[in-house]
Design a protein that fits this description.
4 domains; OB fold (Dihydrolipoamide Acetyltransferase, E2P); six-stranded antiparallel β-barrel; alpha+beta; 29% helix; conserved putative lor/sdh protein from methanococcus maripaludis s2 fold; 3 helices
């Protein structure tokens, strides 16, 4: 029997009125909720930003120097030795011995390392053999010369007696002169051999590396079995140095001073140095020299400062802060009572803010900032004197957002 093909029921595609109302209502609800979601996100973001604490940097107000010389300028730099040397070999060779380590204190001329000297010793032995052979030839020629001189005397007597011809006399004379020339040549060969011996001996001595001055080894740059050379061979397989030695007695401070303030620095000027490693230790120093040239890129002038007394705690490349002190001026009689208000503290100039009314700073108290009006005095380098409003030991904000307000909770940047 034939099978009837299925008939399409178009009525099944009809959307009932109830479904149409629900679908339209859902779309309207979705569209209406979008502004609500955006508003909620804005509110949440604003709330999060509101609760975020501003990050600030603080510094401690310093106590002014009591009756001593005032600071004319502050700077920072590093401890650098005047005598620092990377010890290298004069020749290319393989290291066969290293007799030091980092931190080893060495004396002038002390043995540091050895290179393979076998080839140079063979060259030295060859030069000595040439010298000995030339000296032996001289001895043989001198024997022949003595015999030739005897023959010459005999030939002269026979010629005078008319028994021997002039030719025989001439031959005897020529033989004696030839032997004298050969002896002179052999002596020059001996001298040449002596020169080659000196060169070979120097090459052997170049295989021994010694300390050029007393100091401390701060770097061990080669190991046994490595190749060293005074010239870089490239590829990283050949060392150019054996060790680095520092003379600790030549340690000094090197700082870069802004050229705008270099007029405040003079040779021999007293300086107080403070190592970053020992912030409570003030080291008396003085300006040794001002390098007479400026760095046009950084607009600075290099100043070298000598320690008045060296200490084993002072190590090369340590960070150090220095204060250049003003020369203390004698008090003028009758004017002691005319002195103005004295500074109660010194703070960084970056901590001072101002508005239309007065200058002020933000003090840090219990995690909050407190606005405090201040009366300022003279400046010294990067610091300014405070006559009133701040006491030594107070923490002041030196860097923070411009929107900072009195009473804001802040977070200290470490």
């Amino acid at each position: 029997m034939p099978v009837d093909s299925p008939k399409h029921d178009l009525g099944s595609l009809r959307i009932h009125d109830g479904q149409r109302m629900k679908s339209g209502l859902g779309k309207r609800v979705s569209y209406a909720s979008i502004p609500v979601v955006i508003f909620a996100a804005i509110v949440a973001t604003a709330f999060a930003l509101r609760n975020q604490k501003p990050v600030v940097e603080v510094a401690t107000a310093a106590k002014p120097d009591a009756g001593g010389p005032q600071t004319a300028l502050n700077a920072s730099g590093y401890v650098t030795p005047r005598r620092r040397a990377t010890i290298a070999a004069k020749i290319t060779g393989r290291v066969t011995g290293v007799f030091f380590d980092e931190g080893t204190r060495v004396n002038e001329g002390q043995l540091l390392a050895k290179l393979d000297d076998s080839d140079y010793k063979r060259a030295l032995d060859s030069a000595k053999a040439d010298r000995d052979a030339a000296q032996a030839a001289i001895a043989d020629l001198e024997v022949q010369l003595r015999n030739a001189e005897i023959e010459l005397k005999r030939a002269q007597k026979l010629r005078e007696a008319g028994i021997q011809t002039q030719e025989a006399l001439d031959n005897a004379l020529t033989l004696a002169d030839s032997l004298r020339a050969k002896i002179a040549l052999a002596k020059e060969q001996v001298n040449a051999a002596q020169s080659r011996i000196a060169v070979a001996q120097q090459a052997v001595e170049n295989c021994v590396i010694r300390a050029p001055f007393p100091g401390i080894v701060v770097s061990k740059d080669a190991q046994v079995g490595e190749m060293v050379s005074p010239n870089s061979a490239g590829g990283g397989f050949t060392r150019t140095g054996i060790a680095t030695i520092v003379d600790m007695n030549s340690n000094e401070i090197e700082v870069d001073v802004n050229e705008s303030y270099i007029a405040r620095v003079q040779p021999g000027q007293p300086v107080t140095a403070t190592l970053d490693a020992y912030p409570d230790w003030q080291i008396p120093s003085k300006v040794r020299t001002v390098i007479p040239t400026a760095d046009r890129q950084k607009a600075t002038v290099k100043v070298r400062i000598s320690f008045l007394k060296l200490d084993p705690r002072i190590l090369p490349d340590m960070g150090v802060k220095v204060a250049f002190l003003e020369e203390q001026k004698p008090a003028v009689k009758g004017k002691e009572k005319e002195k103005g208000p004295q500074a109660v503290a010194f703070i960084p100039k970056s901590a001072v803010r101002s508005d239309s009314s007065a200058s002020f700073v933000y003090l840090l108290r219990d995690g909050k900032v407190e606005r405090r009006a201040v009366s300022l005095g003279t400046e010294r380098g990067t610091e300014v004197a405070v006559l009133a409003g701040v006491t030594p030991g107070d923490s002041v904000v030196v860097k923070g957002p411009e929107s900072l307000r009195d009473g804001d909770k802040v977070e200290i940047r470490q």
